[in-house]
Amino acid sequence: MSQTDTSTQAGTPTAAVPAEPVLEIRDLSVDYGFGDDPTHVLREVSLTLHRGEVLGLAGESGCGKSTLAYAATRLLSPPGLITGGEVWLTGRDGKRADLLSLSDAELRAARWRDIAIVFQGAMSSLNPVFRVERQLVDGILAHRPGMRRAEATERAAELLRLVGISADRLRSYPHQLSGGMRQRVMIAMALALEPQVLIMDEPTTALDVVMQRQILEQVMELRERLGFSVVLITHDVSLLVEVADRIAVMYAGEIVETAVARDVYTKPRHPYSAGLLGSFPPLHGPRRELTGIPGSPPDLSKRPPGCPFAPRCAHAMDVCRTELPVLGRTAQAEEGRLVACHLHTSGLVDGVLPGLLAR
Amino acid sequence: MRFLLRRVVFYALTAWAAITINFFIPRMLPGDPVTALLGRMQGRIDSRAENSLRVLFGLDQDTSLWQQYVDYWGLLLRGDLGLSFTHFPTPVADIVSQSLPWTVGLVGVATVIAFVIGSLIGTFLGWRRGTWADGLLPAATFFQAVPYFWLGLITIAVFSVNLGWFPSSGSYDRGMVPAFTGEFIGSVVYYGFLPALTVVLSSVAGWVLGMRNMMVTVSSEDYVTVAHAKGLPERQVMFGYAARNAVLPQVSSFALSLGFVVGGTLIMEMVFSYQGIGYTLFQAVSTHDYPLMQGCFLVITLSVLVANMVADLAYALLDPRTRTEDR
């Protein structure tokens, strides 16, 4: 298994662009609802996850973060419908495959082996009527048909120890475990086949703050050891600033900004990112007033033309209400960061960029 | 084990209550059995026999209600349910034990078949929701809505009167002597086919709809999505994760319906003149045969209780969450 080739200590991400992309989402679009008037929930979202990287996906509830995770793994159930795009996954052997065009059998084989998911509902992700052992073992055996059950059980015990649960918990039913333990079991399960990509969809929302921290630290530690890449979906930007290498900020089904985690925190370039950061207390330094973002997220089924954030944006211009901004370079033309905002593209000079976005 | 013990105690209490009520209700009815019997026999019994009948029924002694109650329990525990009026002087216990196997055999088998087929179809329909499979639902609703007696009469009209494929009544060829021979069993199956078919047809739709709806609910549970994400074969997700959980409420209603096998097939046995416990109860009611009625009620009550107990045990076996742990 290839170790991470970029130096990535949790919390101190480097600005260097990592080498090889392991998951590449290109122009992924998703609609909810059939018929003539579906709701466009994802609009041509593109996102790249590099090997060994922790990519944070941030945004308010309902902005399409989870839909992106489900769509990229083809787990979206009706009325969700993928209407376009590609999801390229680089296998361990270096071969690239588009998950969206694989046959069902190929997709089944790639799932869990290459790309595993931890869902947000820690309490409901385990089948209530089977013991933990059976649920760990069936996933392993589905991908290793030749393996003996005893071997798989041994592997399951090893996995539980990996996440700090004693192996005798294999004989427990899910309802006999606490929420934190269940989520650890899910993480152990996700790592069963040593996947290359681990998608975590708000993995700690159902847990208390102390448990959240413990579990995330454990995942980051395991990532160091096992060298998988992580997509971490959460609404908690402060958490991402700590653990992620890069952050992508989503708003209304689109990515509005991507940058190295620390840069998003210190120098947000999109008014929405700046608003998100203003809505939680700073990690360091003097206390400041929390501002929040006025208004509420747009109704995706009644989307006005132009930038979806314009009605809530303090810096909205005329062009924002008519034209949809596309993801492009920042006004400062910084390396490795993209923003979708007219403030950066409409030929404004540095001085005119609002102070908050020009730091 | 404590779980088991608690259930057993609970059911013992319920059985006691049921039997006690069964004891008191006839005693609250007006009239007395001897006059009723004499009235029914309409002079075929000499009025001078009245006294000996009173002695036979134990009505000559002026026993207290409490003493009667204690005696009743004593007789019950010895399997003595009294004598039938209509089949006088056959003991009620004999009549019940003759008719019970027919009902349990025929309707029990039909209920199991309906449950298995219905749940399988429901599993499939629920898994393929939103496709052409949903088109089968109106048919299921139709069979569930059709009144049973109508379905029974139609099948008799079509298959035994018009086509002449099956007999319209009875439980075996009257020319045969009941015995454990292949020929006799074949005859029982032949006579039982039509009634069993109607029972299956009328109850299978309920299982289909119940299972299908539970499948739709369970399929959106997170653990089913996780099973998909794990790359498990579809069949394994469908049966091991979705159907395995969706079947839980089905199992409890199945056990309940087993309880109603004994009491709930009255109409079927009337339509097909099938010699089961329902038909016996029907006859007992129409001839005011109180001891027989009481016996039938007792058997029906006890069978519902036993079925409930089976349901509890099956549920505990299938759903670990209902088992309370010994600590």
Automatic annotation (TrEMBL), chain A:
Database matches in PANTHER family: DIPEPTIDE TRANSPORT ATP-BINDING PROTEIN DPPD (PTHR43297:SF2), OLIGOPEPTIDE TRANSPORT ATP-BINDING PROTEIN APPD (PTHR43297)
Organism: Promicromonospora iranensis
Major localisation: membrane
Name listed for the protein in its UniProt record: Peptide/nickel transport system ATP-binding protein
Domain ABC transporter: 23-277
The organism's place on the tree of life at top rank: Bacteria
Membrane topology: Peripheral membrane protein
Sorted UniProt keywords: ATP-binding, Cell membrane, Membrane, Nucleotide-binding, Transport
GO molecular function: ATP binding
Nucleotide-binding recorded as keyword: yes
Family (UniProt): Belongs to the ABC transporter superfamily.
Annotated localization: Cell membrane
Automatic annotation (TrEMBL), chain B:
Keyword Transmembrane helix annotated: yes
Domain (ABC transmembrane type-1): residue spans on this chain: 100-311
Entry membrane topology: Multi-pass membrane protein
Transmembrane segments: 7-25, 102-127, 148-168, 188-209, 254-277, 297-318
Domain of life of the source: Bacteria
Compartments reported by the entry: Cell membrane; Membrane
Keyword Mitochondrion: no
Sorted UniProt keywords: Membrane, Transmembrane, Transmembrane helix, Transport
UniProt family annotation: Belongs to the binding-protein-dependent transport system permease family.
Record-given protein name: Peptide/nickel transport system permease protein
Organism name: Promicromonospora iranensis
